[in-house]
């Protein structure tokens, strides 16, 4: 008999249990370590493979701006309990879906039942299936309303991400993607993106599309129209099933809550349904509980109560994985047997009740800080790292005459996770986010106000965030304080510089005075140190990134228009600012406001006598190119008094046709007149044809557009369509047009 076995037999029963628990804990840690090593290795290999393609086609992928869902996947895999989810992966529904092209599988369940973890298991299974098989590929996506990365909540972000993922799995970069990029450095239309994805999917024998948490894709149920992101996804699903390629090679798997709009759409598409409820889910939850009772040091202390703990948590969690996790967290903090008994008798019945308890246990000071962090994670414009989040605590709102930033008030970043307990998680690269979609719903609901008497409203939150950003920037009141170390010493500087205008415009009018005071200091102070420091940290005028030598290309008046600040514009006008001063990328203030979509500012500037033509028609051109219908109307209404230049309307017509803005095309057609009207309409037709905007093509033909015309001095259909007056040039090779048709000048 081995010596180790003889030694173990001499131990007391209590010591034997401790040794067994220690061995189980070691085994669990090794599994977690192995899992992390596997994840890291797979990511490294994938990065090396992707890197070869990205190195060659980096500009294309950078231009595509595809959201990255890998952080969500990695986080889900780290939280996965080994042994759970096997019922689904070995079930008939999943196995048939995996083998049969043209199949649509919908997994639905209650909040917190483990859909995201299950989805990550499906992704891993299919990823293994595609390894070594060049004819099979996978693209996945996690809709995530907790994430400030807007692309993770939008249909277009979903499509862009799929395009990139499937393109990286092609042996060579797909022609469809190269063509998409080659037809101009502008933003392609959604239809064009979807057509590109379709062409890429057709290259595989098996193309697996997996999307988690469709219910977290934004939806306005009060106005269920085409503007709803969720409606766009569901309509795309419908179109996808109509593709000939779908029945040949595409497999789609969706997870979500069972919400009516999703249920109706997917049932109409004959989706196979898998409901996450009943014994399979309960067995998974029990597997998780048993593992924690055996391997968690604090829970293992109550081994004599393990059966009672398991039974009570199973009963109270009622099929909700998330609730079981939080209830074990509650039990983990028990210090005595009496504590444990009281806790078991009073476990929370819901996630919202659990969150109330977590916050109610905090001291008043920590509660205020926790709510501050939760506010930021709910409404920040992009994901924040812990060290950035810690900086926001350094602003003293009691400081007079306005809030100021004091470095010695900053929190230790590690304290954030302690204060916020189970409400916040961090990714492997240090980004913080709300721990679960249910936390976001809790903060958005009346439960927070009813539970602890605090309300995190969206508008008030944006105002406070904007105030924090500006107060942070005002510490750089001299350009001399900016150095190469600035971003290291003040990690929140870039966020504050880039995003404060967005938060300021989203704030409420009832808190305007406090915010306006800070904006006044930034724009109206006698010293321009803080203003220049802001521009050097992030220039709204198309020059992102920190540059210690950068100088503003426009006046403060120009930047106020660019940021959408009407009150500052009025104050500067009273001080004698030139409303038509030239400068900046958009020529002048009205051009900048039109380019950024600030309707209120455009109206104000026009009322105060701004030249609507701006810099050679830049205002109308930019408003038309970016689809700002209301601003186009404003500028054209102004033309009733001062007629628009023919060239100005012609250029705007062409760019609106290029980007698929049909309503704007109609508006501009009413204004297109003069000797060159035919020329501009024909150019608009070329642009519409090049991007497959069939409705606009039909509209232009109704107004006399002709596809190819002999004798005009602009060459054939591949001729560069340019705006010589505005400085924008876009290559437009027309599809379907007679590309060999020549004009007199270029024949």
TrEMBL record:
Keyword Repeat: yes
Keyword tags: ANK repeat, Repeat
ANK repeat ranges per the UniProt record: 615-647
Composition skew (Polar residues), residue ranges: 720-729
Domain named Nephrocystin 3-like N-terminal: residues: 83-257
Domain (GPI inositol-deacylase winged helix): residue spans on this chain: 368-449
Origin: domain of life: Eukaryota
Signal peptide location: none
InterPro entries on file: Ankyrin_rpt, Ankyrin_rpt-contain_sf, GPIID_WHD, NPHP3-like_N, P-loop_NTPase
Region (Disordered): 711-732
Protein name: Uncharacterized protein
Gene source species: Heterobasidion irregulare (strain TC 32-1)
